Amino acid sequence: MPRSVNSVASRARRKKIMKQAKGYFGRRKNVWTVSKNAVEKAMAYSYVGRKHKKRNFRSLWIQRINAASREHGMSYSAFMGKMSKSGIELNRKVLADLAMNNPEAFKAIIEKVK
Known about the structure:
The protein has helices spanning 7-20, 32-71, 76-86, 92-101, 103-113. The protein is mainly alpha-helical. The N and C termini lie far apart (85 Å).
């Protein structure tokens, strides 16, 4: 009895990977073994990249808050310490947005914390 091979599923699996490799350079876009490795590596990088994005944005927010608070004569660490003591619960994302787009509101927060 001949061996039964599910070529429909195999073709679909390869087609899915080749579709993901569309736009890659050289053989990465049209040779199965090369594109499979390239797509697997790309997926690993994208997973790690989603974690790095969170870190990068947090550090950007901290830099913006630090710059804005130093304009009003207070360091970032002192500002955040006094924020928690005064009971104002604004996260870094909101504080950075206020510092950039609404400096008078940020100044009001600084005055309330002092």
